[in-house]
């Protein structure tokens, strides 16, 4: 495993981060609460991740209606002190945790939700806290000031932003500079071989300001695993049957994507000893030094195998360019 400090902090994370969005539910959708992995299955995945060297867990208060955080907290209670002290916890807030709950990033709401997160995780201080979405109803100054207050009172060590645009990030930096506030230390947006071109500007901004970048959905909802076969129905329980909306653009360009995947298999066989296309996709992201760590959400312990492949694969610049050029500009 590789490890790296994030942003300007002293927080060292594993460059592969365990995404826990399917613990006790499928993401933040209330209609899918109690689906996904049950607690026993979640603990098996956590055990396997730690065995691989993963030290950083990514969750959110709304994942599974709080169940994801609770499962992680219960798992930590079973760990010996050495393991527990090595774990870096990252959570997010914005979405409703239960039907009828509020959403957003107001000072009042964040101040309330952080206490629930700390309680479920069984910790007095959260290492990393993120805004899960941007809140158009709340002034950014209010949100940033609240995160700073949480730092000062010791409830969080650092904060970042997920699903933020380049314009919003630049605005947040300007606000923090003007008000003398600590700023977002990293960005967490979807990034993979299929959409990397639209992420390039964000990576440049993060590099300019010394911010971290921890992309999620590095396998594009399963499209870069090869499990979706042309002309066949999607696998039951896959992202394309549970939450297809973020990936509908890939359906529109599926012929070009399938051609790219076939070429990718050929490159894998010729240059990398026939590793899986999932492993090669992850290796491509890890080969970019601007990426602090990638978030991967395995549904079973065996789904961690592509990570092993990626960590043992080195890509040169020619490899990176060749792989990127296999897919259409979306």
How would you concisely characterize the structure shown here?
The protein is of the alpha/beta class and 330 residues long. The chain has helices at 39-52, 67-78, 81-86, 107-121, 140-152, 166-179, 196-209, 239-242, 248-252, 254-271, 277-286, 305-311, 317-324, and strands at 3-5, 12-14, 16-19, 56-58, 88-93, 126-131, 156-162, 186-188, 212-213, 294-296.
How much helix, percentage-wise, in residues?
40-55%
State the total count of DSSP E strands. 10
Q: What's the CATH H-level homologous superfamily of the largest domain?
A: NADP-dependent oxidoreductase domain
Summarize model confidence as the mean pLDDT.
93
Terminal residue distance: 32 Å
Organism: Rotaria sordida
InterPro entries: AKR_Detox_Biosynth (IPR050523), NAD(P)_OxRdtase_dom_sf (IPR036812), NADP_OxRdtase_dom (IPR023210), Ribosomal_uS2_CS (IPR018130)
Family: Belongs to the aldo/keto reductase family. Aldo/keto reductase 2 subfamily.
Keywords: Oxidoreductase
Main attributes?
alpha/beta; NADP-dependent oxidoreductase domain-containing protein; 13 helices; 8-stranded parallel sheet; 2 domains; TIM Barrel; two-stranded antiparallel ribbon; 10 strands; 330 residues; oxidoreductase; oxidoreductase activity
